[in-house]
Design goal:
Number of helices: 11
Largest sheet: 7 strands, parallel
Strand order of the largest sheet: 5-6-7-8-9-10-11
Distance between the termini: 19 Å
Number of domains: 2
CATH class of the largest domain: Alpha Beta
CATH architecture of the largest domain: Alpha-Beta Barrel
CATH superfamily of the largest domain: Enolase-like C-terminal domain
CATH topology of the largest domain: TIM Barrel
Oligomer: single chain
Structural class: alpha/beta
Length: 330
């Protein structure tokens, strides 16, 4: 018989994370624990309402209402994808001897929006990063293009930038950037979700016209997310904890893993390790991961940052330690 418990957490960013959608100060989520005999599995529920998931309150209410009465092996409703991922990974890692992975992964360095990007790029270059994700759509186009020129000039040979607009650009702004970037395309790995969900056809047409790679992110969480998996030919930025049951997510990613970027949702070490276990199951995965997210000052993350996630470091992370550090059992 399986025993189930959960606990909520709230984490504060050391500095608010600035994106095109505004400032993000706190990260709320839920940790799950399943016990069966002498085996223990942990999961994490990490809602992002801006991506179309359930709210934190809806997720907590689901587990509170079903704590004593539901069958852990039954499916979670489709309108609770983060709950489904968290519970399915907890059940899955009941049977895994090694959680997190057994190979090394390159990491893309996260650059803050605005002028702080230059100093951060210089710092991360010294740490060995060669691929960088920069948040755009926060300042004016002219300001950000001036910053881009400085960032591009700092990059070493082979260095690449990912521009993440978080679906905030207008079509006019998108075209303005595409024309601007045409002469610097050798340093642009891709533009991530430049337009709103629903404008995939327009993004695909621009990709063909300008020859600059476009990656989808938010689109995979929209109402046409399944269709995007089937039809999008470019890079896929995947926030796995937002997409539902882990077996379903893995099956969706297996055929396109060579163009998948697994990306963080600013989770604890529990969610991080479970996503890396998914990465382990995708041998064709080769693009730098979006996991440069050590930006909290609490005890719910213990991994060391760096340009490479080493399998030997993953083995040192302890899900039970995170559970105990949060400390409030429900």
């Amino acid at each position: 018989m399986k025993e189930f418990a959960y606990q909520a957490y709230s984490r504060r960013f050391k500095e608010p994370l600035r994106t095109a959608k505004g400032k993000w100060v706190h990260r709320e989520g839920i940790l799950l624990r399943v016990i069966e005999g002498d085996r223990v599995g942990y999961g994490e529920v990490s809602p992002l309402v801006e991506f179309g998931t359930e709210t934190f309150a809806e997720a907590e209410a689901y587990f509170a209402n079903h704590l004593k009465s539901f069958d852990l092996d039954e499916g979670v409703p489709k309108n609770l994808p983060c709950c489904a991922f968290g519970l399915s990974t907890a059940l899955r890692n009941l049977n895994e001897k090694t959680i997190g992975g057994d190979r090394d992964f390159e990491v893309a360095g996260l650059l803050p929006a605005g002028n702080g990007a230059e100093a951060e790029l210089d710092k991360k270059l010294s740490l060995g990063y060669r691929v960088f994700k920069w948040k755009v759509g926060v300042a004016s186009v002219s300001e950000e293009q001036a910053i881009f020129k400085k960032l591009a000039a700092q990059l070493p040979t082979g260095g690449r930038l990912r521009l993440d607009a978080n679906a905030a650009w207008s079509m006019a702004t998108f075209k303005q950037w595409l024309k601007f970037l045409k002469e610097a395309s050798e340093v642009v790995e891709f533009i991530e979700q430049p337009l709103a969900v629903g404008l995939e056809a327009e993004m695909l047409a621009a990709r063909a016209e300008f020859g600059i790679e476009i990656a989808l992110d938010e689109s995979f969480n929209g109402v046409d997310g399944d269709r995007c998996f089937d039809e999008w030919p470019g890079i896929c930025v995947i926030k796995a904890p937002l997409l539902g049951e882990v077996g379903y997510v893995q099956s969706r990613l297996e055929s396109l893993a060579d163009r998948v970027v697994l990306s963080s949702v600013f989770e604890t070490d529990i969610g991080f390790l479970n996503t890396l276990s998914l990465a382990k199951a995708l041998p064709k995965l080769e693009l730098a991961l979006g996991f440069d997210t050590l930006c909290f000052s609490d005890a719910l993350g213990n991994r060391q940052g760096g340009a490479v996630i080493h399998a030997s470091e993953l083995a040192k992370l302890d899900m039970e330690r995170v559970w105990e550090a949060n400390g409030h059992l429900i």
